[in-house]
Design a protein that fits this description.
Blueprint lengths: L9 H4 L3 H4 L14 H14 L8 E2 L1 H8 L3 H13 L3 E4 L3 E4 L4 H28 L7 H14 L6 H19 L2 H12 L3 H4 L9 H19 L3 H26 L6
Antiparallel strand pairs: 1-3, 2-3
Helix pairs in contact: 3-5, 4-5, 6-8, 6-11, 6-12, 7-8, 7-11, 8-9, 11-12
Protein backbone atom coordinates (compact mmCIF):
# COMPACT_ATOMS: atom_id res chain seq x y z
CA UNK A 1 0.00 0.00 0.00
CA UNK A 2 1.31 3.43 -0.96
CA UNK A 3 1.50 5.86 1.95
CA UNK A 4 0.41 9.35 1.13
CA UNK A 5 2.89 12.06 2.14
CA UNK A 6 2.05 14.50 4.88
CA UNK A 7 0.06 17.52 3.58
CA UNK A 8 2.27 20.53 3.15
CA UNK A 9 0.11 22.88 5.22
CA UNK A 10 -3.44 23.43 6.26
CA UNK A 11 -3.55 26.37 3.86
CA UNK A 12 -2.77 24.24 0.83
CA UNK A 13 -4.86 21.34 2.07
CA UNK A 14 -7.86 23.63 2.30
CA UNK A 15 -7.71 24.97 -1.23
CA UNK A 16 -10.88 24.43 -3.20
CA UNK A 17 -10.76 22.25 -6.27
CA UNK A 18 -11.59 25.24 -8.46
CA UNK A 19 -8.70 27.24 -7.09
CA UNK A 20 -6.27 24.35 -7.38
CA UNK A 21 -7.32 23.43 -10.90
CA UNK A 22 -4.82 25.88 -12.34
CA UNK A 23 -1.89 27.68 -10.83
CA UNK A 24 -2.54 31.42 -10.56
CA UNK A 25 -1.02 33.10 -13.63
CA UNK A 26 2.30 34.76 -12.96
CA UNK A 27 2.52 38.35 -14.14
CA UNK A 28 5.20 40.45 -15.76
CA UNK A 29 7.10 37.58 -17.33
CA UNK A 30 8.98 37.69 -20.60
CA UNK A 31 7.82 34.16 -21.34
CA UNK A 32 5.18 31.75 -20.10
CA UNK A 33 6.23 29.85 -17.01
CA UNK A 34 6.45 26.08 -17.07
CA UNK A 35 4.18 24.12 -14.76
CA UNK A 36 7.12 23.46 -12.43
CA UNK A 37 7.99 27.16 -12.33
CA UNK A 38 4.39 28.11 -11.58
CA UNK A 39 4.20 25.64 -8.70
CA UNK A 40 7.54 26.90 -7.39
CA UNK A 41 6.38 30.53 -7.63
CA UNK A 42 3.17 29.82 -5.75
CA UNK A 43 4.77 27.71 -3.02
CA UNK A 44 7.66 30.16 -2.73
CA UNK A 45 5.30 33.04 -2.02
CA UNK A 46 3.52 30.97 0.64
CA UNK A 47 6.84 30.16 2.32
CA UNK A 48 7.99 33.79 2.38
CA UNK A 49 4.60 34.91 3.70
CA UNK A 50 4.75 32.28 6.44
CA UNK A 51 1.76 30.28 5.24
CA UNK A 52 4.03 27.25 5.01
CA UNK A 53 6.04 26.94 8.18
CA UNK A 54 9.79 26.37 8.46
CA UNK A 55 10.53 22.67 8.82
CA UNK A 56 7.31 21.65 7.05
CA UNK A 57 7.58 18.77 4.61
CA UNK A 58 6.23 19.52 1.13
CA UNK A 59 4.05 16.63 0.06
CA UNK A 60 4.94 15.56 -3.46
CA UNK A 61 1.78 13.54 -4.02
CA UNK A 62 -0.40 16.22 -2.45
CA UNK A 63 0.91 18.91 -4.80
CA UNK A 64 0.65 16.63 -7.81
CA UNK A 65 -3.02 15.99 -6.99
CA UNK A 66 -3.59 19.66 -6.24
CA UNK A 67 -2.31 20.83 -9.61
CA UNK A 68 -3.44 17.75 -11.52
CA UNK A 69 0.02 16.95 -12.82
CA UNK A 70 2.41 14.04 -12.57
CA UNK A 71 5.08 14.03 -9.88
CA UNK A 72 7.76 15.06 -12.37
CA UNK A 73 6.86 18.78 -12.48
CA UNK A 74 6.49 18.78 -8.70
CA UNK A 75 10.00 17.38 -8.26
CA UNK A 76 11.26 20.01 -10.69
CA UNK A 77 9.46 22.67 -8.63
CA UNK A 78 11.23 21.41 -5.51
CA UNK A 79 14.58 21.76 -7.24
CA UNK A 80 13.73 25.34 -8.19
CA UNK A 81 12.77 26.09 -4.59
CA UNK A 82 16.01 24.49 -3.41
CA UNK A 83 17.99 26.71 -5.81
CA UNK A 84 16.19 29.72 -4.32
CA UNK A 85 17.15 28.63 -0.80
CA UNK A 86 13.54 28.05 0.23
CA UNK A 87 13.64 24.30 0.73
CA UNK A 88 16.18 21.62 1.55
CA UNK A 89 15.87 18.32 -0.26
CA UNK A 90 16.92 15.35 1.86
CA UNK A 91 17.58 12.00 0.14
CA UNK A 92 14.71 9.51 0.61
CA UNK A 93 12.91 11.98 2.89
CA UNK A 94 11.69 14.78 0.64
CA UNK A 95 11.70 18.56 0.54
CA UNK A 96 11.56 20.53 3.78
CA UNK A 97 10.97 24.27 4.13
CA UNK A 98 13.95 26.35 5.19
CA UNK A 99 13.41 29.27 7.57
CA UNK A 100 12.99 32.71 6.02
CA UNK A 101 14.06 35.13 8.74
CA UNK A 102 14.15 38.88 9.15
CA UNK A 103 17.92 38.72 8.81
CA UNK A 104 17.86 36.67 5.61
CA UNK A 105 15.36 39.06 3.99
CA UNK A 106 17.31 42.14 5.12
CA UNK A 107 20.56 40.60 3.88
CA UNK A 108 19.07 40.02 0.44
CA UNK A 109 17.85 43.62 0.21
CA UNK A 110 21.14 45.00 1.52
CA UNK A 111 23.22 43.14 -1.05
CA UNK A 112 20.96 44.18 -3.92
CA UNK A 113 20.80 47.78 -2.72
CA UNK A 114 24.58 47.99 -2.38
CA UNK A 115 25.03 46.68 -5.93
CA UNK A 116 22.45 49.14 -7.27
CA UNK A 117 24.19 52.01 -5.47
CA UNK A 118 27.50 50.93 -6.98
CA UNK A 119 25.92 50.98 -10.44
CA UNK A 120 24.46 54.47 -9.87
CA UNK A 121 27.90 55.78 -8.90
CA UNK A 122 29.43 54.21 -12.02
CA UNK A 123 26.81 55.76 -14.29
CA UNK A 124 27.44 59.16 -12.67
CA UNK A 125 31.13 58.78 -13.49
CA UNK A 126 30.21 57.96 -17.10
CA UNK A 127 28.07 61.11 -17.27
CA UNK A 128 31.00 63.17 -16.01
CA UNK A 129 33.48 61.55 -18.41
CA UNK A 130 31.19 61.41 -21.47
CA UNK A 131 29.26 64.70 -21.40
CA UNK A 132 28.31 64.54 -25.07
CA UNK A 133 26.99 60.97 -25.04
CA UNK A 134 23.47 59.64 -24.46
CA UNK A 135 24.30 57.88 -21.21
CA UNK A 136 20.99 58.83 -19.59
CA UNK A 137 18.75 58.09 -22.58
CA UNK A 138 17.33 54.72 -21.49
CA UNK A 139 17.14 55.73 -17.84
CA UNK A 140 15.12 58.82 -18.75
CA UNK A 141 12.80 56.70 -20.87
CA UNK A 142 12.10 54.42 -17.91
CA UNK A 143 11.58 57.45 -15.68
CA UNK A 144 9.03 58.87 -18.12
CA UNK A 145 7.10 55.61 -17.98
CA UNK A 146 7.14 55.73 -14.18
CA UNK A 147 5.80 59.30 -14.18
CA UNK A 148 2.91 58.27 -16.38
CA UNK A 149 2.10 55.36 -14.07
CA UNK A 150 2.23 57.53 -10.94
CA UNK A 151 -0.58 59.69 -12.35
CA UNK A 152 -2.61 56.75 -13.62
CA UNK A 153 -5.85 56.22 -11.63
CA UNK A 154 -6.02 52.70 -10.24
CA UNK A 155 -2.41 51.88 -11.10
CA UNK A 156 -1.60 48.36 -9.88
CA UNK A 157 1.03 48.61 -7.10
CA UNK A 158 2.78 45.53 -8.48
CA UNK A 159 3.06 47.14 -11.91
CA UNK A 160 4.51 50.29 -10.36
CA UNK A 161 6.98 48.28 -8.30
CA UNK A 162 7.98 46.32 -11.38
CA UNK A 163 8.73 49.59 -13.16
CA UNK A 164 10.94 50.65 -10.25
CA UNK A 165 12.83 47.39 -10.70
CA UNK A 166 13.20 48.10 -14.41
CA UNK A 167 14.72 51.49 -13.64
CA UNK A 168 17.27 49.96 -11.30
CA UNK A 169 18.11 47.26 -13.85
CA UNK A 170 18.53 49.92 -16.56
CA UNK A 171 20.97 51.77 -14.30
CA UNK A 172 22.90 48.54 -13.81
CA UNK A 173 23.05 47.85 -17.55
CA UNK A 174 24.02 51.48 -18.26
CA UNK A 175 26.94 51.16 -15.84
CA UNK A 176 28.58 48.80 -18.32
CA UNK A 177 29.71 46.51 -15.50
CA UNK A 178 28.99 43.06 -16.97
CA UNK A 179 29.96 41.20 -13.79
CA UNK A 180 27.55 43.33 -11.79
CA UNK A 181 24.82 42.59 -14.33
CA UNK A 182 25.48 38.84 -14.06
CA UNK A 183 25.45 38.93 -10.26
CA UNK A 184 22.16 40.84 -10.35
CA UNK A 185 20.62 38.16 -12.54
CA UNK A 186 21.90 35.46 -10.19
CA UNK A 187 20.25 37.20 -7.25
CA UNK A 188 16.94 37.03 -9.11
CA UNK A 189 17.29 33.37 -10.10
CA UNK A 190 19.01 31.87 -7.05
CA UNK A 191 17.26 33.60 -4.15
CA UNK A 192 13.69 34.03 -2.94
CA UNK A 193 13.58 37.62 -4.29
CA UNK A 194 10.68 37.13 -6.70
CA UNK A 195 8.64 35.31 -4.04
CA UNK A 196 8.60 38.50 -1.95
CA UNK A 197 6.77 40.38 -4.71
CA UNK A 198 3.83 38.09 -5.39
CA UNK A 199 1.67 40.37 -3.26
CA UNK A 200 1.86 44.21 -3.18
CA UNK A 201 4.43 45.47 -0.69
CA UNK A 202 4.99 49.12 -1.60
CA UNK A 203 3.35 52.12 -3.31
CA UNK A 204 -0.16 51.00 -2.44
CA UNK A 205 -1.77 54.42 -2.87
CA UNK A 206 -1.47 57.30 -5.30
CA UNK A 207 0.17 59.44 -2.62
CA UNK A 208 2.76 56.76 -1.93
CA UNK A 209 3.50 56.38 -5.64
CA UNK A 210 4.02 60.12 -6.05
CA UNK A 211 6.31 60.20 -3.03
CA UNK A 212 8.36 57.31 -4.35
CA UNK A 213 8.49 58.93 -7.79
CA UNK A 214 9.96 62.11 -6.27
CA UNK A 215 12.66 60.03 -4.57
CA UNK A 216 13.47 58.25 -7.82
CA UNK A 217 13.62 61.56 -9.69
CA UNK A 218 16.05 62.92 -7.09
CA UNK A 219 18.31 59.89 -7.47
CA UNK A 220 18.33 60.15 -11.26
CA UNK A 221 19.12 63.86 -11.09
CA UNK A 222 22.04 63.02 -8.78
CA UNK A 223 23.30 60.57 -11.40
CA UNK A 224 22.85 63.22 -14.11
CA UNK A 225 24.91 65.69 -12.05
CA UNK A 226 27.93 63.41 -12.43
CA UNK A 227 28.45 63.12 -8.66
CA UNK A 228 29.08 59.42 -7.83
CA UNK A 229 28.70 59.78 -4.07
CA UNK A 230 25.44 61.73 -4.29
CA UNK A 231 24.09 59.30 -6.90
CA UNK A 232 24.81 56.26 -4.76
CA UNK A 233 23.37 57.85 -1.63
CA UNK A 234 20.17 59.04 -3.35
CA UNK A 235 19.46 55.67 -4.94
CA UNK A 236 20.18 53.76 -1.74
CA UNK A 237 17.86 56.09 0.17
CA UNK A 238 14.63 54.95 -1.47
CA UNK A 239 15.76 51.36 -1.94
CA UNK A 240 16.41 51.13 1.80
CA UNK A 241 12.98 52.61 2.48
CA UNK A 242 11.43 49.83 0.40
CA UNK A 243 13.45 47.26 2.34
CA UNK A 244 12.12 48.58 5.63
CA UNK A 245 8.56 48.67 4.29
CA UNK A 246 8.72 45.04 3.17
CA UNK A 247 10.15 43.90 6.51
CA UNK A 248 7.37 45.76 8.32
CA UNK A 249 4.69 44.25 6.07
CA UNK A 250 5.92 40.68 6.45
CA UNK A 251 6.32 41.10 10.19
CA UNK A 252 2.71 42.28 10.45
CA UNK A 253 1.18 39.75 8.05
CA UNK A 254 3.04 36.52 8.70
CA UNK A 255 1.13 34.26 11.13
CA UNK A 256 3.98 34.26 13.66
CA UNK A 257 5.79 37.40 12.48
CA UNK A 258 9.41 37.55 11.41
CA UNK A 259 12.11 36.09 13.66
Amino acid sequence: MVTKPHPITASLSGLTEARAASVPPMRRQRRALTTAEQIAEYCGAMIVEGRIAAGERLGEEKLADLYRVSRGPVRDAFRILEKRRLVEILPRRGAFVRPVTRMSIADLFNVRNALAGMAAATVARRVDMEPDSNVMLKIDRRLGQLRAMADMPGCDPLDFTFQLTRIVYTIIVTSGNKLLEEIWAELNDHTFWTAIWKTPQDCLTGAERRERLAQVEASIEAIRSGDPMAAEHALRFWLDLIRDRVLCNLDANRPSGLT
